[in-house]
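Changelog note: in this version the structure field was regenerated for every chain. One regenerated record is shown below for reference.
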Amino acid sequence: MQNILEEKFDLTPDAKIIVVGEGITGTSVANFLQSQNLPFSTVDSRKAAFTFETFKGASHLIISPGVALSEPTIAAALNSGAKLVSDIDLFAAVVNVPIVGITGANGKSTVTTMLGDMSRACGKNVGVGGNLGKPALDLLDPKADLYVLELSSFQLERSHVLNAATATVLNISADHLDRHDDLENYAQAKQVIFSGDGVMVLNADDEMVFAMRDESRKTFTFSVKQNADFYLANQNLMHGENVLMPLADLPLEGKHNVANALAAFALSSAIGLDLKLCANALRNFKSLHHRMEKVSTKNGINWVNDSKATNIGACIAALEGYDEKVILVAGGEGKGQDMNELAPVIQAKAKAVILIGKDAPQIETAINQLPEIVPTYHAQDMQEVAAIASHVAKLGDTVLLSPACASLDQYKNYQDRGNQFAAAIEALPA
């Protein structure tokens, strides 16, 4: 293993390696380097501010995804010749079984989990993680047959040696523009997942994704709107002329989850899994926490927690999955997104909107420019959200927490936001 690290990255006992960030990823990197007897130091801006001295003389920087590469002291170190290596680079270099890479603005956790379940149903010893659950380096196991990694744009933009057996970009929509500046840069970061020569799995319904097609590479397409290699027709999930499973057997709400299932089938096919066994795994699939999760039917109202919808695209996908209008709970930290993109879908799919968080005024401004009035309310916390929603909702209505924004303005993370939503509903009088 040490020979590979020296050959690929010039990582030797003489290197001056700095691990930037002491969170989950940084800790996994530190443990890995220690196991390889490679010397390193760790720094974290939460403990001491970075200065140009911090990185002086560094030969390698292994930078956690939460730290921006544009941070001036880091950019200066890289410009001075320090090599950028990611935990995904280290992982990909030392693994000798197939890796599946999954990214996209929305749905990547669902598809990653689906493919993990499918692989296990086919008898594979599979490691599932990356941006979801365990960091990649913590998954390393000599007994593994296969690894399925969810990868974020931040992980991909600092990775250079990933050669996945198959990979997908599920979709592109505005997200993390506070870090990537514009949609094109964001899409370029996502496209890194296709570096190498593995099977490309592309969403035929997303123009930016479909434009990534490389004619020299084997490619599978999926679609819920048109004919593709894996597609939806006559209420069935299809592969060519073969029915993979009836739509009624898929235990998840929303068209976006049909697209997720088709993507998972396409990836399964690319690595040679038995699609019948994969379909059986999907029939038993449980929705992820905080992702279109029905948390209660208290007082005859359907309360749905989609707190993981931290961008506009995820919120739009959630809204478009409903035939009837819902009461939408949205807001938080907008990350530089244009809320005008959300407004027309709110008009089509929301009977009322309850706004929370720092950038609630931006969403309200966008809604107020609509030709028809959508009633809008403001809430300080989830208790007030639950109280307003109870007052506005009628029997059989759905109250959907799908914020379209990050959570850190008010909560520890999106999980905390979703948990507080569920707790507030639980505390309502019957």
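Spot check on this record: The chain has a mean pLDDT of 94. Residues 224 and 398 are 24 Å apart (CA to CA).
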